[in-house]
Amino acid sequence: MRVETLGEGEPEVAIVGGIHGDEPCGPRAVEALLDADFDVERPVKLIIANERALEAGVRYVEEDLNRAFPGDPDADTHEGRLAHDLLTEIRGCEILSLHSTQSYAAPFALVDEMDGHARSVCSYLSVEAVVETAGYSTGRLIAYPDVVELECGIQRSAAATENAKRLAREFLVARGVLAGSEQPHRDHRLPVFRMERQIPKPDGEEYEVFVDNFERVAEGERFAAVDGEALHAEFPFYPILLSAYGYENEFGYAGDLVGRLDGEEPAVPARESASARADGRSH
Question: Model-level pTM?
Answer without folding.
Answer: 0.89
